[in-house]
Amino acid sequence: MKMMRLDNSSSIYLKIAVVVALVLFVVLARTAPHPANFAPVAAVALFAGAILPRKWALSAPLAAMIASDLIIGMHSLVFVTWGSFLLIALASHRFLGNVNKTKVVLGSVSASVFFFIATNFAVWAQGMMYPLNAGGLIHSYVNALPFFRGTLTGDLFYSGVLFGAYAFVTYLATEKKLTHTA
After folding, report:
1. 3-state SS, residue 173
2. Could you tell me the CATH number of the domain that includes residue 78?
3. What is the span of the domain harbouring residue 117?
4. Tally of structural domains, the chain
5. Phi and psi angles of residue 52, each rounded to the nearest 5 degrees, phi first
6. Cα(97)–Cα(93) distance, rounded to whole angstroms?
7. Has residue 6 been placed in a domain?
8. Mean pLDDT by 10 residues, the chain (182 residues)
């Protein structure tokens, strides 16, 4: 599917509206009761990276994380989690220019795996929960596996929702233009 990417010539109001909607979506999803790690942040980073200019794509997941972490509470690894989502948005901006279902699924799975590796490495590197050796690192990853299910299913679900809704709205807008010109 060919998805319209907003660029620097797109209306600033449209870009602001998209970022605000994405931030509100994340804040609501993260503050409402939900299964562990089943959140739309990586999906928002993927989506924003795919459709927004780079600085706008980075602002959506970062603003969403800052706002929602201020509500649910800060933690010692905020910069690792925030940085992970910024890198996901950057990668998406670079590699998801021409979006299709396969790329969305692969991007979502890759984002889940990257987030799992980065954040659990940071937990281990703090040295507060696991010994700072290979056994401790392995133990950190093994203990985090139950949470990976929520991360992966949440990323896949929310990526499908965001990219699917955008494709549908884009389709409707294109159809409306076609019927008005005929």
Report:
1. helix
2. 1.10.1760
3. 12-181
4. 1
5. -110, 155
6. 7
7. no
8. 78 93 98 97 98 96 98 97 98 91 96 98 98 98 98 98 94 75 56
